[in-house]
Amino acid sequence: PENPFPTDEREAVSASKTPYVRFDCNDYSIPHTHVQRTLTVVASPSQVRVLDGTAVIAAHARSYDKGEQVEDPAHIAELTAQKHQARQHRGIDRLAPTSLHR
């Protein structure tokens, strides 16, 4: 037809502390900057897209298995880099005398 009927599934999902959203019994990765928010999943028969408002923040091939963890390597790399950077600043100047900071 000229105007095909929309068949994509749309569902509001909550991202908790981990950078994943659960849809259809599977976990799909999202950028770590979007945790602890309500996001929207739009799923076609072949693809799962995760939206924050109207912006697509993740797109994955759809899995029809159960309990799968579908990841984008870029999402994991960003999270690893962020954790490594935070670890470098941890404990800096904890043991230094306070007189040096004045």
Question: What does this protein look like?
Answer:
There is one protein chain. The protein is an alpha+beta fold and 102 residues long. A four-stranded antiparallel β-sheet has the order 1-4-5-6, with no helix packed on it. The mean pLDDT is 86.
Strand order of the largest sheet: 1-4-5-6
| Average residue-wise pLDDT | 86
Please trace the helix and strand order, writing H or E for each element: EEEEEEEH
Beta strand %: 35-45%
Number of strands: 7
Shape: elongated
How big is the Rg? 19 Å
Number of helices: 1
Helices and strands, with pairings:
Layout: E1 9-15, E2 20-23, E3 26-29, E4 37-43, E5 47-52, E6 55-61, E7 69-70, H1 73-89
Give a short synopsis of this structure:
This protein has 102 residues and is an alpha+beta fold. 17% of the residues lie in helices and 36% in strands.
Features:
102 residues, alpha+beta, four-stranded antiparallel β-sheet, three-stranded mixed β-sheet, 7 strands, 17% helix
